[in-house]
Structures are given as C-alpha cells and as structure tokens.
Amino acid sequence: TRTDQTHLTQQTASPTPISRSFNSLFRVLGSLKVKQLGFIKFVPHILICVLIATIVCGTTDLKEKIDVLGKVPSGFLTPLETLKGSNIKMKKIAEVIPSAFFITVIGMIESVLVATTFASKLNYRVSNNRELVAMGLSNCIAPIFGSFPAFASLGRSALNFQSGARSQISSLVSAIIVFFSIMFLLPFFEYMPKVALAAVIINAAIGIFEFHELIFLWNIRAYQDLFLFFLSFISTNVLGVEGGIALTIAVSLLLIVKHTSSPHVAIIQRSPSNPEHFEEAAIIRDINLFQEKHDFYLEYMAERGVLIARIDEPLYFANIGQIKELFMKLEQRGTVPVHAVVLDAGNIPFVDPSAAATLHELFQEWKNRMILICLVKTRPPVVNLFIQCGIIDLVTPERMFSEIKDAIHYLEQSITDHVNQRGFP
After folding, report:
1. What does the H/E/C string look like for 108-134?
2. CA separation (Å) from 128 to 111, 113, 116, 133?
3. CB-based contact 313:347 (threshold 8 Å)
4. What is the pLDDT of residues 126-163, one digit of tens each?
5. d(CA 257, CA 277)
6. 423 three-state secondary structure
7. Rounded to an integer, what distance in angstroms lies between the CA atom of residue 99 and that of residue 2?
C-alpha cells in the first residue's frame, strides 16, 4: 500500500548512527581501492560489507534491535494472476491518481537528471525523449507481471558508475542478476539491515553530488537557480516529497511566466556606414527601466518619423499588454510624431488569440491615426492567424515584406502623402 511504501522510505532514508557507520566504512574501503593497494582494487567491498551485515543480523539477536528487510516472496505474478488479483474500482482509481501523478513527475525528473548527469560526466549525447519513450513502453508491459513503475534511479546509476560500468552491457548484466535474485535469492535477504541498504545509496549519491556546481552558480550570480535548489531541498524535507515537488514546480512556473511576460523588443536603425543595412540600436526588456540613453537610439526617427522594431518572443496573454504599452511609450519618445511602424515579426513563433485581439486593437488605433503599418518576415502560421482575425485587412497585403529595406523603400515613396494628409510640413 501507499502507507507502507512511505513508511519504508522514511525508515530506509533515516540517517541513523549505524547507517553513517556503514557509509564511513564504504568510503574508507573505496579510498583504498582508489589508491590501488594490491588486490583490494578488485574486491567488491560494498557487496562484502552488506553480506557480512546480513550474516551478523541473521545469526545474532541484532535483527530484533534494528529494522531488517523481512520476508519477501520470490518470483513474478503471471498475467492471469495479475488480472485475477486486480479488483479495479473507480473509487480506488480516484484515490491513487494524485500519488500516480507525483510518481510520474518525480520519475520523469529523476530519469532526465540521471541521463544528463552521466552524459556530462562521460562526454556522450543522450536524447531525453527517447529515454522517456523507452520507459513508457516498459511501463506498459511491466504491470502485466505485477511490477512497480520503472524509472531511472540516481542511487543505482551512481552505484553502477562507481563500480566501473561504462556501457549498456552493465545494465544487461545487472538485469540478469536482478532477475535471478528475484526468482531464487530473495529468501536469503530476509535479515539484510535496512541501514546497510540506506548506506549504499547515500555512499553512491554523495559520490556524484557536484558541490562545484553550487559554487559556479554563486560566482555567476545565478541567485534564482540557487533559490530553486534550496527551496526544493528544504520543502521536500519539511513538506515531504509530494508537497516539496509541487511547491517547487509551482514556483518555477511562476518565475517562467514572470520572465516571459517582460517584453523583449529590439529597436532597429539604419546603419550609418551602409544605408541598405539595418542593425540593432537598443534592446528593451522592461518598460519600467526605460532609460534616457535610449533617446539617443531614437534620434534617427526625427528624419522620417519611422519606428522600426523587432519582437523576439512569442506573443501571448502574459506579455502582449506590456508590449502594447512599450510601443505607446516609444511613440512618445520620438522627436517627431510617428508616421509609420515597421514591425519585424521573424522571431515571433506563434501568437495566441488574446495577443491577436490586442494586436488588432493596436493596429486599428494606428490606422485611425493614419500611421502606416508594415510587417516584415512574418512566419506562415502567424500570417494565417492574422488573416483569420482581420489584422491583414488592416495592414493590407501590399505592406507585407521579406526584408526591412523593402519596407523602408515602400515608405519612402508613400510617406510624404500621408504626412501631408495629417497636416505636417
């Protein structure tokens, strides 16, 4: 049951003095192997320590003083036994859905973490999508035999790495050993101390924990990542695994929304050395930090009253309001009234309906004020959306261009008439 599994996890992970003693012994023997003292480097010291601890507990009364693994039935359930024993009820399904969700999320995160960690250590490439697809397929077959959900394990992978494994053959050998252990050797594990198992995992996990990553994050002032790290560590210890993971995911999503809601708009100007070339003059991310130095980059607008801008992110409900306000502020910063707006949309991968409605309102306002609008490098999916919501009707197809210079040439031919219509000399 879920309660038994939680109780087992808490007992196994408890840092008792005995567990710390086992861990210290593992690390001392491991250091001897690193120094390659004679035949010691070929001895599986962790396995021998666990076997000795099991024998001691089985032959003395120590098994009554500490928690041991206990009796575990050998073998697998057949598919027929699994179907007979599965008493599926909607009430039970509703009860296990929250736990199943967190198990899936934690398993996915741990699997990706394990894959990327060891890929970085051993300098090889890994596809997270393929890893997840493989685990998904295995988990579709495994329940037929009554097994638990299978995910990558940081502790087992670290133990495998410390044992010297460097290829997938090690996983095949491990699977064969595990299979025969489940089929024939489980009765011999009855008196195995849980603290010994905990020490094995702790010893392996400490070996792959990269403290220099924290120092690196501190040196580059990645305070947000450090905050998420310590938030995850503290919340999982205080609230439990489910509560800690849920809190960390929620805070991460809020930070992502906050980051993406800040507009990323580049002001474009004509290159002084090459009139046919256009370059970035300034990048503005926060309208609240609009500095006076940006006025320098807007001086080129005095010549023709043309605002050239490029949006470098998707447009959706969280950032479209600030982008609209930013364009209004850019108009006010110009030394002459804006007569035309050239919008480079090449870096806008998609636009959601809320953003499309706001853009329609903005373009309609510009059209009512007789401001010409030109769109440049607009992607086909965005063009299709603009056609459906009526933005293309406001811009007109003749003002859709593939290059900024083409839009400027068009404006140079037509802007004088529009200026005269508005009453400017």
Report:
1. HHHHHHHHHHHHHHHCCCCCHHHHHHH
2. 8, 9, 8, 9
3. yes
4. 888 888 888 888 888 877 777 777 787 766 777 677 77
5. 35
6. coil
7. 8
Which residue type is seen at 176?
A: I
pTM of the predicted model over 0.90: no
HSE-CB of 377 using CA atoms within 13 angstroms:
15
pLDDT in tens, 69-90: 888 777 777 777 666 655 666 6
DSSP 3-state of 280 = strand
Residue 316 has pLDDT above 80, yes or no: yes
Identity of the amino acid at 190: E
Q: Residues 407, 376: contact at Cβ < 8 Å?
A: yes
Contact between 129 and 115 (Cβ < 8 Å)? no
In 10 A of CB 207, how many CB atoms? 14
Alpha-carbon distance 346 to 403, whole Å? 10
Q: Which residues have a Cβ under 8 Å from the Cβ of 77 and sit 6 or more positions away?
A: 85, 145, 146
Phi-psi region of 367 (alpha: psi -120 to 50; beta: other; left: phi over 0): alpha
DSSP annotation of 269 reads: E
- Sign, CA dihedral 181-184-185-189, equals positive
**Whole-angstrom distance, CA of residue 310 vs CA of residue 343:** 6
Q: What are phi and psi of 385, to 5 degrees?
A: -65, -40
Alpha helices for 293-403 (secondary structure H)? 294-297, 301-304, 320-333, 353-368, 380-389, 391-395
Residue-wise pLDDT tens digits, 200-214? 777 766 666 667 778
DSSP structure class, residue 64: G
86-90, 172-176, 195-199, 391-395, range with the lowest pLDDT: 86-90
Give the three-state DSSP class for 224.
Answer: helix
Would you mind telling me the total number of residues written for the chain in this entry? Answer: 425
Report the distance separating Cα 231 and Cα 229, nearest Å: 5
DSSP 153-197: -HHHHHHHHHTT--STHHHHHHHHHHHHIIIIIGGGGTT-BHHHH
